Sequence to fold (93 residues):
Amino acid sequence: MMQHKDLVDKLSKSLGRNKTDINKLIEALSNVVKERCSELDSISVPRFGTLEAVNHRESIEVDSETGKRTLMPPRVEVHFATSNILKKQLNQS
Fold:
């Protein structure tokens, strides 16, 4: 698995930008994804895939061993669906 530092290094070399700029770009992208997903919007990136926000309402979960009931707060999960183009590229590697 690629670590954040490795990603920054690769992008810095590929784009010819310094690491500070790359970190700012990654942070900005992260903020846009958080903002749009919190609004339950989907984000499509051509040739890459789609990030889809899925809303889960609050629920009560019961521990099967103890029987203890816990109220789980509402939450938003983000699911990623790979584009067909990216899948083909990854399979050729």
Notes: The chain has a mean pLDDT of 94. The longest strand covers residues 49-56.
